[in-house]
Amino acid sequence: MKTGGLLKGILMSVLLVGGTASVCAQNEALVSSEEKTLLEKLSGNKRKIDWANMNIQFASSLKASFINREFDEAAFRVDRIRLEILGAFHNKFSYHFRQSFNQYTNPNIPLDNLSGSVELAVVNWNVSDRVTLSAGKQAVQLSGYEYWVSAIKVRQFSDFNNAIPCYQAGLNVSYALNPDQTMNFQVTNLRNGALEDQFMYGLPQGVERSKVPVLATANWDGFFVDRALQLRYSLSYGQLAKKKNIFYFTCGNVWDKKPFLGYIDLMFSREGLDSKGLLSGITVDEEGNGTTIQNVNYFTTIGNLDYRVNPHLNLYIKGVYEQGGVYKETPGFEEGTYRRVWNTQLCAEYYPMENSELLLYLHFLYKNIHFTERARLLGGENRNEQRISLGLVYTLPVF
Predict the structure, then answer these.
(1) Which of 73, 79, 172, 287 would suit a FRET pair with 36, their CA atoms being 20 to 30 Å apart?
(2) If you write DSSP's letter for every residue of 219-246 in order, what string do you get?
(3) Could you tell me the pLDDT band of residue 4, with boundaries at 50, 70 and 90?
């Protein structure tokens, strides 16, 4: 496929996501052969491509799992396959498209009208040297290193990050305060599809759906000490259902100076309805029926230290502490802590070739899930999980 055709396809996809494309008859061409493309109009009949890249991200592993220290299963697994296309044109515009082949795909998503397997479909416009406008499906501007680093580099996410629907259709305005500090102001959907997809146990009695299920986020990024110290802080607010809101405070504090990479992430949410389902899951009975708990909060702390021994070997240790509870009593659910999770990881990564994305890794996970007495009365059962993974990760550059 020619690059110009690829660009036109991506631009048309984003226009469809935004709802700006008109409906045409099935047998009628969307763009006639004589009509100028958007790129040609912007560039004065010249197809000016600044750069364009395509890659395929692949991760696979052999995992041996244990539950409560008893062997459960060993199997091969394809952890991640993603197709990524990104580039820029006419000096002011760039695009980013990414599709995951590990995501459940529903072609009839009613809210953003896009398959759930598409993570990114966004076009960026550099309005000026300081202002950039981004439209389409994009990453929600929450903060934290684990949240923002490429998922191909994460062996095990925290429960908090694993439960966030982090790619949503919306609009973002980025303003560069100076070369090292940026503010982002974003409005996105809170969910991709139907209300039942977000609250699998339904809305509690008397709670009505939101007619404006959006999330507003303000984010600040800063780089200091010759860009070795990276700080990222965000506040978000949105409406899950009528009179049931959600609030996020998330931050990432990173030190990245060879041979060390260390970070501490803090993530907090207060939710009128349990959008993550981590607490509501304890109410599920043998028939699969459960209740969406109201007035919950979650708090997560993530600490990580990488040490690059040499160009071929990287070691890291990672720890996660998570807590979830009810901040305001409702019938059947008293105020207090319900769930605590400890997560410890050790990993050795081997890079056979220098300056290559190919790596082999050996990863150890220990995870303890503890429910308090009030949660155990609702059906919560303590357990610990262990996993040993031997895997391969490769980002294959196509062009």
Answers:
(1) 172
(2) EEEEEETTTTEEEEEEEEEEEEETTEEE
(3) very low
Fold of 62-79+125-397: Porin (2.40.160)
Q: Tell me, what DSSP letter sits at residue 258?
A: T
Task: Determine contact, residues 386/69, Cβ cutoff 8 Å.
Answer: yes
Arithmetic mean of pLDDT, 378-392: 96
Judge whether residue 177 has pLDDT over 70. yes
Distance CA 389, CA 361 (A): 8
The distance from CA 70 to its chain's CA centroid, rounded to whole angstroms, is: 32
Model pTM?
Answer: 0.86
Instruction: Name the residue with tokens 């045409």.
Output: 24
Contact 189, 215 (CB under 8 A): yes
The Cα–Cα gap between 240 and 262 comes to: 34
DSSP H or E segment with residue 17: helix 3-17
> Rounded to 5 degrees, what angle do the CA atoms 62, 65, 71 make?
125
Q: Is the pLDDT of residue 152 over 70?
A: yes
